[in-house]
Amino acid sequence: MEKKEKLYEGKAKVLYKTDNKDLLVQYFKDDTTAFDGAKKEVLEDKGVINCSISTAIFEYLEKNGIKTHFVERLSSREMLVKGCEIIPVEVVVRNIAAGSFSRRYGVKEGTPLKKPLVEYFYKSDELHDPMVCPNHVYLFEWATKEELEEMTNTALKVNELLKKFFDEIGIILVDFKLEFGRHNGEVILADEITPDSCRLWDKSSMEVLDKDRFRKDMGKVVESYKEIYKRIMERYEGM
Ligand code: C5P
After folding, report:
1. 129, 136, 217, 227: which sits with the fewest CB atoms below 10 Å from its CB?
2. Residue 48 — φ and ψ, nearest 5°?
C-alpha cells in the first residue's frame, strides 16, 4: 500500500489517498483546538497517544461486533481506514451531565442521567455545530430515517461497550461524540475515539482526564491522555 496525496485536512487529523481507491491513511496531528478552532495549541505527542488509544478502542469495538472504518495501525501516528462518505451529523451520547448539556439545561456538572441520552449536532464549524433534532436531519437529507436509527442504535451499543471498557480501568465514561460514514452501502463508525472526543473522569478521584483539561487550561493534557493509554495497555494488551 502506497500513501498518495492529501485528500482532506481537519483540525486534528489529515486524510491521505492510497493506491487502493477504497482505503485512506488517517494521520493524527499534535494540533489541539477548542471552541471551533478559536483556541489552538500544538501538544507534543498528542497525535501518537490518540492514534494509540483510537486503535485500541476500534479493535475492541470490532471484536464486539461494531463495524468501523479501522483497518490497521500503520505507524505511530497513522492508521489505515476504509474511505467513506462522512454523514454530517455528530452523535453525542451522555451518561452524566457536563459541558454544553449542563450549560443548555442548567443541570449541575456531574449529575448522573437516569438513562443514556443521545443528541445530534450538525457538523459545521461555520455554524458552530448547532444542535439538531431528527426532523432537521431528514429535512436537510443529511441521513435517511433508517440511517439515523442505525447510528443511534450503534451509538447506544458503543456506549455500553465503552462504559465497561473504561470502568475496568477505573475511568468513568461521562459522554462522547461519534461520527459515521457510508461505505459500500453500509453505515460504519468513522473518525476517532480519543480523549479529544470523550469526557473521561478517574473513578476514585473524579479527576478530569480528557480534553476539558485543554479547554479549561487545567494543564497536564498529554500526561492525562498518557495515563489513560497506560491503563488500557496494562488491562488489554495482547487480548
Ligand atoms: O461540548 P459538549 O458537552 O456538547 O460535548 C459532548 C461530548 O462530545 C464531549 O465528550 C466532547 O469532547 C465531544 N465533542 C467532540 N467534538 C465536537 C463537540 C463535542 O468530540 N465538535
Report:
1. 217
2. -65, -45
